[in-house]
Design goal:
CATH superfamily: Membrane associated eicosanoid/glutathione metabolism-like domain
Helix content: over 70%
Radius of gyration: 16 Å
Structural class: mainly alpha
Strand content: under 5%
CATH class: Mainly Alpha
Shape: elongated
Number of domains: 1
């Protein structure tokens, strides 16, 4: 489980970093708080942060439950893919949103596997 805890901590730190990047972009592109629009490049940074928050809501509980109910090593491995996917998403989306596909897929696929794995395990436990 220790690797899973490390992956979760890294995912949270990654989200903090993305938030800091939004703050940096807010200053660089002169988008005063509380505005979330006004400059297209700033909006890309903001969307990465918000999309990451949306993904974290699924990722954190599912990776922890998957590790508990299925396999911690697989959970950590899928978590590592998720982290890489988020980095690729950040880099590609802030440069050109049309290029975000690979990073998005490398986030969605691990999340889907984790959630389905938890669901299957929950059903098996309920029927046992």
């Amino acid at each position: 489980m220790s690797y899973v805890y490390i992956v979760v901590a890294l995912a949270l730190l990654q989200f903090v970093f993305f938030g800091m990047a939004v703050g940096w972009a807010r200053g660089k592109y002169k988008v005063a708080a509380p505005a979330t629009t006004g400059n297209e490049v700033f909006e890309r940074y903001f969307r990465v942060q918000m999309n990451t928050l949306e993904q974290l809501v699924v990722f954190v509980p599912s990776v922890l439950l998957f590790a508990q109910l299925r396999d911690a090593n697989w959970a950590a491995g899928l978590g590592a893919v998720y982290l890489v996917g988020r980095v690729i998403y950040f880099v590609t989306y802030t440069r050109n949103p049309k290029g975000r596909g690979l990073g998005f897929m490398l986030t969605q696929l691990p999340n889907a596997i984790l959630v389905v794995g938890v669901l299957i395990s929950g059903i098996r436990l309920a029927l046992a």
